[in-house]
Specification:
With 309 residues, this protein is of the alpha/beta class. It is built from eight helices and ten strands. It has helices at 5-21, 27-37, 50-66, 134-153, 173-180, 215-225, 252-256, 285-305, and strands at residues 76-83, 88-100, 108-114, 119-120, 130-131, 159-165, 189-195, 205-209, 231-234, 262-266. A hairpin with a 4-residue loop joins strand 1 (76-83) and strand 2.
Length: 309
Amino acid sequence: MQLSIKSTLSCLLFLVFFQTNGQSIASKSLLENIKYLSSDELKGRKTGSEGNSQARAFILEQFKSIGLETQYPDYQQKFDFENRRENKPYENSVNIVGFIAGSSSQKLIVITAHYDHVGVGRPNTEGDSIYNGADDNASGTAALIELAKYFKENRPEHSIMFAALDGEEMGLQGAKALVKDFPFPMEQIVLNINMDMISRNEKGELYASGTYYNPILKSILETAAAGSTPKLLFGHDEPNTGRDNWTKSSDHGAFFDVQVPHIYFGVEDHPDYHKPSDSFENIDQQFYINAVNLILKCTLALDAELPKE
């Protein structure tokens, strides 16, 4: 499926509008929030832990202060699951879900980021045992909050759901629960945008994975990201490529399983992945700010171009 000339011109006009009006997220609060969410105080945010509850309370307060709507009691979708690796039940895990009604469509874009991480584990050579999860995935969670702020002030054409998900590190449990107990018909979702690990990359690259299955999305994103920093790349989504295939590597996998198109924004693994050294001090602050602004630009282009009926 190819974009029409009219659609392409519309996207180009949008980009001119975007560039001349300087839309961007608030860098100061973005950095403050990722710093708090990845602090030692939250002890790695493992599902079911006190640190996870503290992170949840913080996100909940942010959603309330922004003034998002919600379809769940006090923004909280609670769910239970069995962690087979630990042979342990987890009760009252919680997704935090906010909503903004679109100006011209009831079709939905669902933006997701998981706020849990792996908690406290084996100490490294420096004696640090807290797996702070700054990139994985305080980065996506802080970005989610800033995108919610932006769209609250700049109403989107599509309705947008913002979901901070729990239990990703235990098998995409929060995303599976959201899909299973979704408050609208699944047919209303035109796209899932998932953010997981977006705050650092030595090559200055950010991936938008998922376009293999929906090439029209690639056309929109290529136009939106032209000349941007970081460089937006595509891939990690072709079948039969083993661990290089990210199609089910994060929460977008639950949406893929029910045939909802997705774009997964993320970076390739770095040496601090799932280690105590994935800390705020080791993110690339300028890369992160630029990456979130690029994701905003891409989201605005997708909102303008995707079907509204």
